[in-house]
Amino acid sequence: MNSKVRVRFAPSPTGPLHIGGVRTALYNYLFAKKHGGDFLLRIEDTDSGRFVPGAEKYIIESLRWCGIVPNEGVGFGDGAHAPYRQSERKELYLDYALQLIDDGFAYYAFDTAEELDALRKEQESQGKAFTYNYQVRTSLSTSLKLSKEDVEERIARGEQWVIRFKMPENEQIRMQDLIRGEVVVNSSTLDDKVLYKSADQLPTYHLANIVDDFMMEITHVIRGEEWLPSLPLHVMLYRALDWEDNMPQFAHLPLLLKPDGKGKLSKRDGDRLGFPVFPLQWQDPKTEEISSGYRESGYFPEAFINMLAFLGWNPGTTQEIFSLDELAEAFSLDHVHKAGARFDFEKAKWYNHQYLVTRSDEDLAADFEKILAEKGISAEHNFVVKVVALVKERVNFVKEMWQQASFFFIAPKSYDADVIKKRWKDNAPALIAEAKDVLLNFDGFDAETIKHGLHDFITEKQANMGAVMNCLRLSLVGSSFGPDLPVIIEMLGKEEVAARIEKAVKTIGI
RNA sequence: GGUCCGUUCAUCUAAGGGUUAGGAUUCAAGAUUUUCAUUCUUGCCAUAGGGGUUCGAAUCCCCUACGGACUACCA
Questions:
Q1: Which bases on strand B have an atom closer than 7 Å to a protein beta carbon?
Q2: Tell me, in Å, how far CA of A302 is from C1' of B19?
Q3: pLDDT tens, A165-200?
Q4: What's CA A437's distance to the chain center, in Å?
Q5: Greater model confidence, A368 or A444
Q6: Is A465 within 7 A of strand B by CB distance?
Q7: pTM of the full predicted structure?
Q8: Chain A residues 68 to 87 with C-beta below 7 Å from nucleic strand B
C-alpha cells in the first residue's frame, strides 16, 4: 500500500467516553504514529435525539489529558477534510443515498414506526423475529412495490420516508479482519438497514460512516468488536458505491469486560464496583449525578494509558512499562488479543505506583503541596521534597502520601490503641522521657548521630531496642508505621520532638 | 430464537506443531527492618470437555459446553 495511513476515532457525543472508548482511540493513535500516518477525530452526531450537551467537550478534554492528540478533527484544528462533525456535513449524504437508489442498491420505504412495531409484535407472537429483508420488502410500502408515480406522489405530499439498503439474497459475503482473519456471512441473514431518514434529513451511522471514511481517505478502521456484525453491510455499501478499491482495512478490537463476569464494561459498572470507568470525572447534565474519573482519582495520564494499552495488547516481550512514544514504536495489530479483556483494578493501581516512584521528588512535591494546601498546611518546599522522597515507595497515589506523612506536618492528635497495648509498658513514660533528654543533649541533630546516640542510650540502659524505638515512634507518629525513626527525628527537629514526647508521656495510658 | 466472535493460572497475557507451558498483578510464606511499607527469595495456580490429523497438539480440523457482541428510522 502506498497511500499514507489515515485512521480515525469517531465517537458519538451521547455521554462521556468510557475507558473502552479511550482504548479504541489510543490504539488508533498508536497505529497512526507507528506508521507515520494521520489520526483524526470525527464526531458522529447524527442522532439528534441522544445528543448530550458537554459530551463532545468531554471527549476532547479526555483525549488531551491522555496525550492522545489527533492531527486533525473537532477541537484539534481543521485539516483538509473539514468539517469533522457529521451534523455539519449533513447535505453530503443524501446524494449518495439517492445514487444507491438509482443504481438499484437501495429503495424508499414508507412504513411508519407504528406499522413496523405492529409487524414485530405479530411475528413475535408466533415466536419469530421480524426482519426487514428480501422476504418482505416487496410486499411492504416500498418503492420496490409501489409504482413510480405513487412513490413520487407520496414524497411530494410530504409523507415521511426512509431509504433502506437492498441487501441481496443468498450471497456469501467474505470479509477480512486484521485481527480475526476471514469472516464469512450469508447476506440472507442480514436485514435492510435504514441509511437515511426524511424525518430529520440525516443519515444513519452506517451511511455517514462509510461516506466520511471514504471522503476522509481513511485507510484502516480500528473499532470495537460490537461493530463486527455490521461489517457485512459496510462492505456491501463500499461495493454498491463503487468504492471497493478504496475500502479501508478493518480491525475489530476485543471488548473490555466487567471485572465481575458478565458482559461488556458499561458506564454503570464503575461506581458500583469502586473504580472509575471514565478518564475524567463526569456530571450528568440531566440527573446531576457524578461519576468518578481517573484524573480526579489521582492517576497519572501516562500510567492510565500504559494500563489501558495492555488490556488486549502486548508487545511480545516482558516489558510492561511504556511511555506513549514507546507504545507507538512497539504497537502492532498482530499482537492484539482476540478475546475480551476483563478490567483489573489492582493492576491499574500497580501501574500508577510504577510511574509514581520514577517521578522526580520535585514533581511529586509540587503535586503533594496542592494536597497540603487543601488541608491548610504550608511547609518549606525543600522539606516537602524530603518527605515525598521518604514515602513515595509506600503509596500508589500522591494523595495517599497524606496518610503516610501527615505527622511530618502536624503532631499526632491521638495514639493508636493497639500499639499502646502492645508496646507502652509501665516503664515506658520514664524511659522515653529519659531518651528525650539524651536527644536534646546531642551536639548534632542528624539522623546518623541520633541513631548512634539512641543505640548507646539503649545499650547503657540495658533496655530493649524494639520497646524504646516503638514507644518513641508512637510518641512522634501516633502509630507504628512510617520511615526510619532517626530520619523522622532529624526532620522534626529538637523542639518538636521534645514537645511531642512530653505530650505523649503526659497523655498516653491515662 | 437467529447471525457472528471468542475460550491458556483468580486477573492481564507469552508460547503461531517439539519448552519442566514463561512473565506480570493478586494472594501466601520466608529473609531484611525499631514499626509499617519497600526490596529480595520462594510458593500456589492454567491450556473448557470430547473426538480426530500427526512420530509429536495450547497451537491445525470437527463436535459439545460455556462466555460475549449484534439483532432500532442508536451509535
A1: 1-8, 11-16, 22-26, 34-39, 67-75
A2: 35
A3: 999 999 999 999 999 999 999 999 999 999 999 999
A4: 55
A5: A368
A6: yes
A7: 0.95
A8: none
Taking the C1' atom of every nucleotide in all shown strands and the CA of A393, the nearest one is: B38
CA distance A305 to A299: 10
Is A394's CB less than 7 Å from nucleic acid strand B?
A: yes
Residue A279, C-alpha cell as written in the block: 478518564
Is any atom of nucleic acid chain B found less than 7 Å from the CB of residue A301? no
Tell me the CA–C1' distance in angstroms for A347 and B19: 28
Q: How far is the CA of A312 from the C1' of B21 (A)?
A: 20
Q: How far is the CA of A263 from the C1' of B69 (A)?
A: 9
Strand B and A338 CB separated by under 7 Å: yes
* Mean per-residue pLDDT over chain A, rounded: 94
Q: Give me the active site residues of A, please.
A: 267
Residue A174 approaches strand B within 7 Å at CB: no
DSSP secondary structure code for residue A221 in this structure = E
Asked whether the predicted pLDDT for residue A465 surpasses 60, the reply is yes
**What pLDDT is recorded for position A444?**
86
C-alpha–C-alpha distance, residues A279 and A11, integer Å: 15
Q: Does residue A306 lie within 7 Å of nucleic acid chain B, judged by its CB?
A: no
Mean pLDDT across A82-106: 96
pLDDT(A433) > 50: yes
How many residues are recorded in chain A?
Answer: 510
pLDDT for A123-173, tens place per residue?
888 888 899 999 999 999 999 999 999 999 999 999 999 999 999 999 999
Query: CA A74 – C1' B68 distance (Å)?
Result: 33
Q: What percent of chain A is modeled with pLDDT above 70?
A: 99
- Give me A46's grid cell: 447524527
pLDDT at A1: 46
Rounded mean pLDDT of A85-96? 95
- Residues 196-255, chain A, CB closer than 7 Å to nucleic strand B: 197, 199, 202, 204-206, 208, 225-230, 254-255
Angle formed at CA A445 by CA A440 and CA A451, multiple of 5 degrees:
90
Cell of A212: 466520511
Give the alpha-carbon dihedral of A268, A269, A275, A277, to 10 degrees: -70
Residue A84 C-beta-side C-alpha neighbours within 13 Å: 26
Range list of β-strands (E), A254-327: 256-257, 282-283, 290-291
Query: Cβ of A127: how many Cβ atoms within 10 Å?
Result: 6
Asked if A259 and A346 count as a contact pair (C-beta separation under 8 A), the reply is no
Nearest nucleotide over every DNA/RNA strand to the A111 CA, judged by C1': B73
Q: What is the tens place of the pLDDT at every residue in A252-306?
A: 999 999 887 678 888 888 778 888 999 999 999 999 999 999 999 999 999 999 9
Q: Does the structure's ipTM exceed the value 0.90?
A: yes
Contact A343, A311 (CB under 8 A): yes
- Rounded average pLDDT over A325-332: 97
Give strand pairing partners of A483.
none
